[in-house]
Amino acid sequence: MIQIRPVSDLRNKFSEIERTVKGGQPIYLTKNGYGTMIIMSLEKYAELTNDVLPSPHDMVNPHIQTALSVLSDGAEKPMAAGRKVPGTGKG
Q: Does 5 score more than 90 pLDDT?
């Protein structure tokens, strides 16, 4: 059955929407009574567009991705002397 909901439900009833979407059903959102968008799972979107789903690694912040690749290479890069540790205010 088609689910039509107001866009405000994204904020107020997100867990219900998430459960429905993960179950494979899209949800049609309306604003002021008019259709505005459709929400669907990444898997369903990939089926419809023949896209390949991104791996969780591809969805990581680029700075974290760089750090992960440095760590996976086994290389350790010490911080330059006198350089502050980000977020601590300490050198």
A: yes
